[in-house]
Specification:
With 248 residues, the chain is of the alpha+beta class. The protein contains 5 helices and 8 strands. The N and C termini lie far apart (39 Å). Bound molecules: coenzyme A.
Length: 248
């Protein structure tokens, strides 16, 4: 099952996600990759890749380039300089310029980036999804209670609940990882959704991340609109993490 073609504007996503004015948000809607063309598939072999796979690879490369453009526009929207395409850190996170924090997400048909000054926010995590997870995959992401809480908040089924749970966890992972903090195993945390937001809690006595108290400073937001599941999490206390305000 797939969401219909995504169409939310940056303004609509910004409103839904209640992003403060300190956060720049930019989106692009690249062409969605199609599957293999109908007809007989070409034989696979060295130098003869399946055209469908090649198409998806090209589409992914286009999405990643669009992510860099969105990042530059998001930085510009906050008045921060964007000195060329962002380099990539060893862990895959974008290396934001000194004094900036941000996050990039891409999914077929939609690319988005958010950025802010590191003096305003400690970190940002952003995730967009245009596909709905199979409900069975929820077990890999969270427990049934969490999935059902999401489903009940959005007024949808378990698959939509699972997709929201997954997206929220991706956002949290990105925000903390960008700040150099390990989230821990998915079951080490519980995410509790509210009408338009979510908070991250420790599950039992586990210690999900390196910095005690940091989870309380995470403020999550979510929306389901125009074929898109989107989540964002803001680390509200810029001084809660070591090195805040400097390049990370
Ligand atoms: C890295 C990861 C978060 C990417 O998420 P995704 O949904 O696959 O893909 P998205 O398009 O939303 O995000 C990709 C972007 O995330 C960013 N990203 C990658 N690694 C990152 C990291 N360690 N920290 C912050 N951002 C990161 C990059 O900007 C990347 O785009 P780019 O390669 O074009 O620069 C994901 O693949 C991953 O490793 N997740 C596992 C971590 C986890 O515990 N997740 C919880 C879910 S159960």
């Amino acid at each position: 099952m797939t969401c219909r073609r995504p169409s939310p504007t940056a303004g609509a996503l910004r409103d839904d996600l209640r992003l403060p004015s300190a956060v720049g948000l930019a989106v692009e809607r690249p062409t969605i990759a199609t599957g293999p063309p109908s007809g007989r598939p070409r034989a696979a072999g060295p130098g003869r890749e399946h055209p469908g796979l090649e198409g998806r690879r090209l589409a992914h490369a286009r999405e990643r380039a669009a992510g860099r453009r969105c990042a530059a526009r998001a930085l510009a929207a906050t008045g921060l300089p964007a000195p060329g395409p962002l380099p990539r850190r060893d862990d895959g996170a974008p290396a934001w310029p000194a004094g900036a924090v941000g996050s990039i997400s891409h999914t077929p048909g939609l690319v988005a980036a958010a950025a802010a000054s590191a003096t305003a926010l400690g970190a940002i995590g952003l995730d967009v999804e245009t596909g709905i997870l199979p409900v069975a995959a929820a077990g890999l992401v969270c427990d049934v209670d969490e999935r059902d809480r999401w489903a009940s908040c959005v007024g949808g089924g378990g698959a939509l609940g699972a997709t929201l749970a997954f997206s929220a966890r991706e956002s949290v992972f990105k925000a903390l990882s960008a700040a150099g903090i390990a989230l821990g195993a998915p079951r080490a945390t519980t995410i509790r959704p509210t009408v338009r937001g979510f908070r991250v809690h420790r599950a039992g006595d586990s210690r999900p991340c390196d910095a005690a108290g940091l989870l309380d400073a995470l403020d999550g937001r979510w929306t389901v609109r125009d074929g898109v599941v989107a989540t964002a999490v803001l680390l509200l206390a810029a001084d809660a993490i070591p090195g805040a305000g400097r390049a990370r």
